[in-house]
Integral membrane protein
Amino acid sequence: MSSSDPVRRGPSIPKTLRWAGLGTAAQGALALIVAVILVIRELAGHHEVGISGYGTAVWFVVIGGAVLAGGLALTRGRRWGRGLSLITQLLLLPTGYTIITGDYLLEAGLSRWLGYPIIAVALVLLALLFAPASTSWLDADDLPPDA
């Protein structure tokens, strides 16, 4: 390919896929923030009996980093980010339900109000991932090989 040959570009990334990527990236960033909070709490001397703050923080960094990378990949039109986003949303649905039905996280049933937004965001992102514009773009044959 010479320098005068036109660059072959695939179709533009649909807004539904970009929004799904941004939402997924935000979820990954939130997990990284939780990891930082866990480390700060552990350094401040707060210790739980049943868990390790540092170990849980490492888990949040690994998972949150992967989810953040998948979300950013979707915003850039990389197909591999769809799988990470899809799995994340499918795992957050039962997580939100567990938070709603169990009053063990916060006092006086306040955890219920944490579970509803988790489920709502997961459902919105699933709808964006499965929107006709998103699925037709992701299934297109004229995308570059690294998409």
